[in-house]
Design goal:
Helices cover about 20% and strands about 45% of the residues. The chain has about 140 residues and is of the alpha+beta class.
Length: about 140
């Protein structure tokens, strides 16, 4: 399955070291959202997490996610990404976590590398929001006038 391309108008949000709000479903169906660092390689979004937390259990139980990234320069613009977990791989030396620290301008000891994993998400849908409206909402507003 190929990954759709993000909209050109919002692709820069994936490339910048911003914070993503990652939503997953708990085994009981309740939703959980967490602020996460991420890396985008043009096809996949990657996060780091540990096997000891609820988010990991959520991802292994129901491997679908939604995340949103707001533009800090214009908070009415954002990008929602929906996707499927393509893989969860061990990161026992914390190498990927270290790369995220560098991306976000930090450097501190990784004390939980033995339980770290890299979560790779394949986007299935991109929903750009401009001025607080999705493309569909903006079109409906134009048609109503």
């Amino acid at each position: 399955m190929s990954t759709p391309a993000p909209p050109a108008t919002h692709a820069q949000l994936l490339e910048r070291p911003l914070f993503a709000h990652l939503a997953t479903a708990r085994p009981d169906g309740a939703l959980q959202s967490s602020v996460m660092w991420y890396a985008w390689d043009g096809e996949f979004i990657r996060f780091t997490h540990t096997t000891t937390r609820q988010k990991y259990r959520n991802l292994t139980h129901q491997p679908v996610v939604a995340l949103s990234i707001a533009d800090p320069d214009n908070p009415y613009d954002s990008l929602e990404v929906r996707g499927e977990v393509a893989s969860i791989e061990p990161d026992p030396d914390g190498r990927f976590y270290r790369s995220l620290q560098e991306r976000y301008g930090l450097d501190y000891p990784i004390t939980d590398a033995d339980v770290r994993v890299v979560v790779t998400v394949r986007p299935t849908t991109f929903v750009p929001v401009t001025g607080g409206y999705t493309e569909r909402e903006a079109a409906a507003a134009r048609d109503a006038t």
